[in-house]
Design a protein that fits this description.
The protein has 15 helices and eight strands. The chain has 433 residues and is α+β, with helices and mostly antiparallel strands. It is a multi-pass membrane protein.
């Protein structure tokens, strides 16, 4: 049978050509012709009439926007496939040891059923800066607030012409020195009324001989009215404010305002300058700027890993099912720990599968487009740009230049070809074993 095959091909080459013709036509129309035309078009200007030679290729390395896209592509190639493959390996190994492994695999693989466009919309919402809308910052702020009380009144500030003046480090300092037995009034404004709804009515501090007393309150009466620097009915106390007494630049005494806004400092504060510490007014933690210039690319890579870790897990789990269990048991009998079994038996046996997954994901990230188009806001999209998106923008965006776009397409092809060649050689070596 095997010897008759070549003889049939030599006897009836027209039959072979007839069967191959539809596939060759499709291959030529959908692959060969577009590649050839892209190479030709990359040698001409934007209008397609003037021959410019290699100028479009030089543009790839001199244009700042395209260089940023190339740099981001290198980050994608180095990080995304490795992280997705590593997570897939961990999931595949661990799911063999848990009772609900199949259900876990289903949950991890489920994002593969979502289109890139839908995933981009989902993660655009996940990375919203407002903790009330973005789940990532909602989780971070919840964890942060569980371990840190935060500033009591971050919005408070003194009146421009009041007793308090900015101290230069976020604190507010009283202009006149304090005197024992003479209550001090330290009014603040700027606190939204809804944040002070539960506060008590502010009260004047009592006169206490030998002590510096005072009141810190919100000098704003609901509905208007009232006098500046006077505790009017309806004005709320600011509890929890730390008051410091400064003498020669040193803190000699501290106190914290009570629920009614009053505080009392010992005799050491007599003649000292009062300061409301900067910690009282530090801006509250509102999460991380995920889509800012610094983190936008790692954030998008995170969304990609969320989608493709399940793909890696399924392929690796299939390869893991073919690993001889006798080798693992023999290693355990010889005294190897689970980590040693994983590192010296499981991973080497899975090396061919891991290589397939890595190569597949590397080719995939070179074509990443949808996530980078959808997730970043317009202000930071140039910082997250990649070559596939830049190809689209150069060819069809503002000031379109399809010569440069074709050059980017050819460059992407040249990046993919070595990976494909290595993969084909590896497959041939395995087939010869």
């Amino acid at each position: 049978m095997a010897s008759g095959g070549p003889a049939v091909i030599r006897a009836r080459p027209w039959a072979v050509a007839l069967f191959l013709l539809p596939a060759m036509v499709l291959l030529g129309a959908l692959v060969v012709y577009p590649i050839g035309y892209s190479v030709q078009r990359s040698l001409f200007d934007a209008a397609g009439t003037g021959f410019v030679g290699m100028d479009n290729y030089r543009e790839l390395f001199t244009n700042p926007g395209i260089r940023q896209a190339l740099q981001n592509n290198l980050i994608w190639i180095a990080v995304a496939p490795a992280v997705a493959t590593a997570l897939g390996l961990i999931f595949a190994v661990l799911t063999e040891r848990i009772r609900w492994g199949t259900a876990f695999k289903l949950v991890v693989f489920m994002p593969m059923a979502i289109s890139m466009l839908a995933a981009g919309i989902i993660f655009r919402l996940v990375y919203e800066a407002d903790p009330d809308r973005g789940i990532a910052n909602a989780v971070l702020t919840s964890v942060h607030d569980a371990f840190s009380e935060g500033a009591p009144w971050p919005d408070a500030r003194p009146r421009p012409d009041g007793e308090l003046a900015p101290g230069g480090d976020g604190s507010f300092v009283a202009q006149a020195p304090a005197e024992a037995g003479s209550p001090v009034l330290l009014p603040l404004v700027g606190v939204p009324p809804q944040k002070a709804e539960g506060a008590e009515q502010a009260k004047p501090a009592p006169e206490v001989a030998g002590e510096v007393t005072g009141t810190v309150w919100l000098d704003f009466a609901p509905g208007g009215g009232g006098e500046p620097d006077v505790i009017d009915p309806g004005e709320k106390a600011l509890a929890g404010i730390e008051v410091e007494a400064l003498r020669d630049g040193r803190v000699v005494a501290t106190a914290t305002t009570a629920e009614d806004g009053t505080f009392a400092l010992p005799a050491e504060a007599d003649g000292a300058q009062l300061r409301l510490a900067a910690t009282n007014f530090a801006a509250s933690f509102n999460g991380v700027d995920w889509l800012g210039p610094t983190l936008v690319t790692p954030a998008i890579i995170g969304s990609y890993v969320w989608m493709w870790a399940g793909f890696a897990m399924v392929l690796i789990a299939a390869g893991l099912a073919g690993v001889p269990r006798e080798l693992m048991e023999a290693a355990r009998v010889d005294g190897a720990t689970e980590w040693q079994v994983f590192r010296r038996v499981t991973v080497p046996m899975l090396a061919p599968v891991l290589a397939v997954v890595m190569v597949t994901l590397m080719i995939n990230v070179l074509k990443i487009f949808d996530l980078v188009l959808i997730i970043p806001p317009g202000s930071t999209q140039p910082d997250a740009n990649v070559l596939a998106l830049q190809l689209y923008l150069s060819s069809f965006g503002t000031g379109a230049n399809q010569g440069v776009g074709s050059a980017i397409a050819v460059f992407l092809l040249l990046l993919v070809v070595p990976v494909i060649v290595l993969n084909v050689r590896r497959l041939r070596r395995e087939a010869q074993r």
